[in-house]
Amino acid sequence: MDKLLRDKKAIILFVAPAFLLFTFVLFIPICQSIYYSLCDYNALTKPVFIGLENYRQLFTADKTMRIAFKNSLFFLVFSVVTQLIVGLILAALLTNIKKGRNFFKNIYYLPCVLSSAALGLLWMFIFTPKLGINQVLAQFGIEGPLWLMDTKGFIILPMWVIASVSLWQYVGQSMMLYMAQISGISTSLYEASYIDGCTKVQAFRYITLPLIRPMMATAMSLNAIGSLKFFDLIFNMTEGGPNHQTEVLATHLYQQGFKYFKYGYASAIGTVLLVLCLIVTFIINKFVKMENYEM
Amino acid sequence: MSKTLTKQKNKSSLVVKTLIYIFLSFLAVIYILPLLWVIFVSVKDDKTLFVSPWAMPERLMIENYTFAWTAGKLGTATLNSAIVCVVTLVLCLLIGSMAAFAIGRLRWKFANVMMTYFLTGMMIPVHCILIPLFTRFAKMGLTNSLLGLILPYLTLSLPLTIFIMTGFFQGMPNELFESACIDGCSIYKIFTHIAFPLSKTGLFVTGLMTFVANWNELLLAMVFISDDTKKTLPVSLSKFVGPYNTNYSQMFAAIVIAIIPTIVVYCCFSNSIVDGLTQGAVKG
């Protein structure tokens, strides 16, 4: 038995396809991308090494980059915080009801499996100045704001709109993660607390919350990475407009790389994105994940 | 005394319950309404669209659908999406569970290192590899071909598959493999005849997740494919939006065509999808 499981040839045969694909399609391109970010490189020329020039330009001269960076950070904070709160509330409410639990769960999860490209177009229509929601408001004599065109304020209205839509689409995911973890908590813990005179809210605060803390770390880092990668909804709702005000890092990278063909410059944005992802995952896992409780 | 107390308690908990249900139903409406709105608008013509949100169309505009299907080339796009997703799905399940079997069941020194290597793939945003991958695929003639989409999709789906399947293989009882071994099974036969068929639930879950993710993927498809006949569904949707005039009712017909298959599949299996996804996610 042991000899069979230590068969070197079989091991290599089993792992090789995945390993080769991974190395050639993921890891070598990442290294290449980091190298390109140090080069002057576009569609017509060969990469020429120029050191940190791209990064210098990115952080000092590029106004759109500043907006994109601000928007991406806003997006990151907004989605991590709101998904945590709304997801937890939904999970707590749904685990407390019996009738219709599956029905509500399935409805809230539905947008997660739908194409965000299609949903982006749908919401773009709903927030068009003269159609959709403003048309409904006009029936009541209210003049709605220019949802996706407004550019006032530090975090402009379109960013709030897009962030809320993404909350609408993806909160089901967090809800499911929390629900799964909550249903794994043994009921005897709750029974004991009720005998001791705990209310439901107290039980949630002192039993549920500490016990699902490891899952909070997982869900939060998934949300954080997801929000940094965020592209489809913004691209289809505003394409980064008006006047680059709703640009995030991902759309900025796409613009620079595949509209202006500045490959080196776009790679630098990609590297910034990668570093951000790693830092955020590290921070969340460091501060949220505590020791695992026995359950 | 205690009776009235319990009565009061029951009453207040009933109020709380009703409030909870009202809140949940309100949310459910927010979730369903936009989707119903799409279907409603997709059978209007553009003129009644601008009159009033509730204006009924004079007749159902089925042409919107036929136009979107033929002139918008959604037929080809659906076929392309289906080819890419199915091929990716099959390869991903096979290659992924092979690697997972080696990591979870076979005994070798670097199993954990290999696992970490695959798992870091989950943290990496696809944007970072976009440019090197694009330039290399352009040289190899893989842009504008479905194979050029299948390769990155496959690679990006592998980490999750390997992760979930490793958990599955590790959870299988040892006796199963021991008895097969005593009967003289080779390691390959153990994989193909015992481990693989027995992990049906895991395969189902990972299969669904991979399929959904790839079916909806926009960025890679948009960068790699510029030929109209090779475009996948999410990419060809954005064609309906023009900078100067957008034909909303036709765009909505296209949206309906794009999301209906997913909704139908979701409704058929919703409980097992949701449970399966959670199972996978908990392990993740």
Name its key features.
heterodimer; A: 295 residues; mainly alpha; MetI-like fold; two-stranded antiparallel sheet; 2 strands; globular; B: 284 residues; 13 helices; 79% helix; 0% strand; flat
Low-confidence stretches of chain B: none
| CATH class (first level) name of the largest domain in chain B | Mainly Alpha
- Which sequence of strands runs across the widest sheet of chain A? 1-2
What is the 3D form of chain B?
flat
Instruction: Estimate the mean pLDDT confidence of chain A.
Output: 86
Helix content of chain A: over 70%
Number of domains of chain B: 2
The whole-angstrom Rg of chain B is 25 Å
Q: What's the CATH first level of chain A?
A: Mainly Alpha
| CATH-derived architecture of the largest domain in chain B | Orthogonal Bundle
Indicate the mean pLDDT of chain B.
83
Q: How far apart, in Å, are the first and last alpha carbons of chain A?
A: 34 Å
Q: How do the SSEs of chain A run, as a string of H and E? A: HHEEHHHHHHHHHHHH
Structural class by helix and strand composition of chain B: mainly alpha
- SSE string of chain B, helix = H, strand = E? HHHHHHHHHHHHH
Total of domains of chain A: 1
> Helical stretch count of chain B?
13
Largest sheet of chain B: none
Q: Termini distance of chain B?
A: 51 Å
Profile the largest sheet of chain A.
2 strands, antiparallel
- According to CATH, the fold-level topology of the largest domain in chain B is MetI-like fold
Description:
The complex is a heterodimer of chains A (295) and B (284). Chain A is mainly alpha-helical and 295 residues long. Chain A is built from 14 helices and two strands. Chain A has one domain (63-287): Orthogonal Bundle (MetI-like fold), CATH 1.10.3720. Chain A has helices at residues 2-5, 8-36, 53-61, 63-96, 101-113, 116-126, 132-139, 157-183, 187-195, 200-211, 213-229, 232-237, 249-258, 263-287; strands at residues 39-40, 48-49. By secondary structure, chain B is mainly α. Chain B has two domains: 2-42; 63-283, MetI-like fold, CATH 1.10.3720. Chain B has 13 helices and no strands. In chain B, α3 packs across α13 (248-283). Chain B is flat. The interface between A and B is large, with 92 and 95 residues.
